[in-house]
């Protein structure tokens, strides 16, 4: 049995043992060892892929907090006490643990340890600003703007869990492509805005 199937079984066992007890983020973090930041990104990114109103704005704040945590304690893997005390209700915790277990089993079909240089804690200095940028895009009220940055963070989170540098690089490329597209659209809007305003028939004379 692979390590990640064992991890999935461990998460399901943790979900079954919760009963009526909540799960703190610190406990979730410890269940993953050094892959804790990756697990947090996966938990925060998955709901942003679903059409849940308001989820992006709320969860983007959690992503920004993860970015701060990575930046503040780099290169160590530490969760601040105040953040770690945040608790998931028993139903939410069971759902999160079982979803993570399912995702790990599915992802294990294509992900494996490779290009591990990228996933080492000492080489993640770029991760904090990237996560913060994706969180900002998710926070903005852009139609369907959650999907691409959330997918990028999901790839990075799974890459950390599986120590798969290729998955992490794929997430980075996806996120940077989105930033380039948004920058192009913003530049085009800034270029054409004066002409559109001059041609607008209802503008004040």
Automatic annotation (TrEMBL):
<dbReference type="Pfam" id="PF06055">
    <property type="entry name" value="ExoD"/>
</dbReference>
<protein>
    <submittedName>
        <fullName>Exopolysaccharide biosynthesis protein</fullName>
    </submittedName>
</protein>
<keyword id="KW-1133">Transmembrane helix</keyword>
<feature type="transmembrane region" description="Helical">
    <location>
        <begin position="173"/>
        <end position="193"/>
    </location>
</feature>
<feature type="transmembrane region" description="Helical">
    <location>
        <begin position="125"/>
        <end position="142"/>
    </location>
</feature>
<dbReference type="InterPro" id="IPR010331">
    <property type="entry name" value="ExoD"/>
</dbReference>
<feature type="transmembrane region" description="Helical">
    <location>
        <begin position="38"/>
        <end position="71"/>
    </location>
</feature>
<keyword id="KW-0472">Membrane</keyword>
<keyword id="KW-0812">Transmembrane</keyword>
